[in-house]
């Protein structure tokens, strides 16, 4: 077996060893239950230090590929059932009440009207052959004019999560270290867990991921990718400033093998200006532009732009599956992005969402509750006890999302996520209910009497 492992290892770093052994496990070359050689034997065979092999083993154990049984040795783990949507599923675990604020979806009444766009499609003859370019030329021209940096190549896929899934498939392998914001979007964490990546969270504040903390994590754990939400961060609502983006880019400049993946999911309903690390690191930045929250979830469209090596890998792989995203829907999106009436409707929605966030945030702060909702459609609220808060709100017919699935590592305080963008009326009553659930008195019951001292950093 040791010859098999040694022959599979090309990169003798801890990451390379973990990736090589991970491939042997996933292909069945190392069957479930097989006992692995000792760390010292593998290190001797590869000509590396035992510490390097130990780090690789630790990554594989965290990913669930191997199991250590004390003095009995280390074994290839039985193939576990995939935790499909494990974190994501928890977001909908709360009982849906009369006021469901757990969803994180836009207000349907604030989406642009598709009627005129559909009428203008004509006969819909937009495909000449199966190897046509995946993006309508006119749509690509508009997307490029909106892009925060000049990408080598662009493609369109079936929504932002599809984009993240396909980019992960292109740049992340079993055992790789990947860095995300803490808190992060639960489906992203699920996707990374599915491919066996080791996920590391970096703390953030109102300006985004903290550069010094990013450097500290990268120094201790060489990573292949950093995933960011540059605007309207879900769940906190924070957005990168130009200064923060420059600071993060400066750190990443010292780690030239790290790919940056940006999920700009809020798009045109975000109030913050578009900021991208691609302005500093264009050859290493993959930017995802989503249109679900601004133009409609059922369009199922998102654009990806960045280095040709990544975008070509995504586009080429899609030729063996769906091939392309519906050019009919692409034509609808093109119309919505260029029609003055639709553009005005999206701008109005952006203003309405901002007003709804501000009203609820003000109401909570007046009641002594710590929360953040600087942009987007969500509000991130600190609570004394997540479970008690959710049960208390459910009793009032209000559903919110638990904060725990967003956290890579626990935060100093419990939180819940509230879809503030859906709160069109009854703000005072809702703020009363949220505050009563958030802050507990000494007997464990809700109160609005004292300020809440803890934030989400």
UniProtKB/TrEMBL annotation:
**Any Pfam family hit:** Aminotran_1_2
> Does the keyword Transcription feature in the UniProt annotation?
yes
One annotated GO molecular function:
pyridoxal phosphate binding
What's in the keyword line of the UniProt record?
Answer: DNA-binding, Pyridoxal phosphate, Transcription, Transcription regulation
Q: Which residues belong to any copy of the HTH gntR-type domain?
A: 11-79
Question: What family, per the record?
Answer: In the C-terminal section; belongs to the class-I pyridoxal-phosphate-dependent aminotransferase family.
Q: Which PANTHER family does this one have?
A: HTH-TYPE TRANSCRIPTIONAL REGULATORY PROTEIN GABR
Annotated protein name in UniProt: GntR family transcriptional regulator
